[in-house]
Design goal:
Belongs to the peptidase M24A family. Methionine aminopeptidase type 1 subfamily. This protein is α+β, with helices and mostly antiparallel strands and about 260 residues long. The protein has one domain: Creatine Amidinohydrolase (Alpha-Beta Complex). The protein is about 25% helix and about 25% strand. It is built from four helices and 15 strands. Strands 8-7-9-14-15 form a five-stranded antiparallel beta sheet. Helix 1 crosses helix 2 and helix 3 packs antiparallel against helix 4. It starts with 6 loop residues before the first helix and ends in a 9-residue tail after the last strand. The relative contact order is 0.19.
């Protein structure tokens, strides 16, 4: 069931969204070659708890799927060909030239914020750097469509059209989602689709929009270890950006916008 958030609920989601953006700002300051992904995760958990939140992802497991091991970390840290759900590890070292997707959720005041950014580590191959830039553009083009009266797949089509115009692939089996008091709510938000299809958007819907775009021909992300981390089918790099937004009449409200972006 899709829920319409009240203005009181949206106020609370502003708090969780702001907390989430601050974590990713902190990661941007701290991430560097030589760090392990577990070091990033440790920093993030301490930061979230010090600021009155709880990590949304830690011990998360999809409802109705008892075979999935609960997620063991605060962040998803995915490097290069890893699309999503990279599990932090003391042996996984971040290196010069990597691109690193960090996905973070914060539960605060009874509601979740969910956001992701892909970071460039040192001197990155220009072609890969372009992928990251275009993926971020896809996110904001999708958000532009998240206004009352549009259809859900107007978001999807805007993302797909921009990505494919550069010859990139859209990961089709990983999607955005509704969000609120639960981390994952209805509806799923795919990153591909036809304009003017899907449910009609209403003011107060809360969505996590998250394009995952790859350089190669991958249409799906495939499991590497049978549980969490998912990689491109052909081993080519993938980038990922995400914001939690509220559908509005004129312009979507971004809950997880960094304070520096609000200026």
């Amino acid at each position: 069931m899709i829920t319409i958030k009240s203005e009181r609920e949206i106020d609370l989601m502003r708090e969780s969204g702001a907390a989430t953006s601050l974590v990713l700002d902190m990661i941007e300051r701290e991430i560097k070659p030589g760090m392990t992904t577990l070091q990033l995760d440790t920093l993030a958990e301490a930061f979230i708890r010090d600021n009155g939140g709880v990590p949304s992802f830690l011990h998360y497991a999809p409802k109705g799927d008892p075979d999935v091991t609960p997620y063991p970390a605060t962040l998803c840290v995915s490097i290069n060909e890893e699309v999503v759900h990279g599990v932090p590890d003391a042996k996984r070292v971040i290196r010069e030239g990597d691109i690193v997707s960090v996905d973070c959720g914060v539960y605060k005041g009874g509601y979740h914020g969910d956001s992701a950014r892909t970071y460039l580590i040192g001197e990155v191959n220009p072609k890969v750097r372009k992928l990251v830039t275009v993926t971020r553009e896809c996110l904001y083009l999708g958000i532009e469509q998240a206004v009352e009266g549009n259809r859900l797949h107007d978001i999807s089509a805007a993302i797909e059209r921009h990505a494919r115009s550069f010859g990139y692939s859209v990961i089709e089996n990983m999607v955005g989602h509704g969000i609120g008091s639960e981390l994952h709510e209805e509806p799923p938000v795919p990153n591909y689709g036809r304009r003017k299809t899907g449910i009609r958007l209403r003011e107060g819907m809360a969505l996590a929009i998250e394009p995952m775009i790859a350089m190669g021909r991958s249409r799906n992300a495939v499991s590497r270890n049978g549980q969490w981390v998912a990689v491109t089918e052909d081993g080519k790099p993938s980038a990922h950006f995400e914001h939690t937004i509220i559908v509005r009449k004129e312009k979507a409200e971004i809950m997880t916008l960094s304070p520096s972006e609000r200026k």
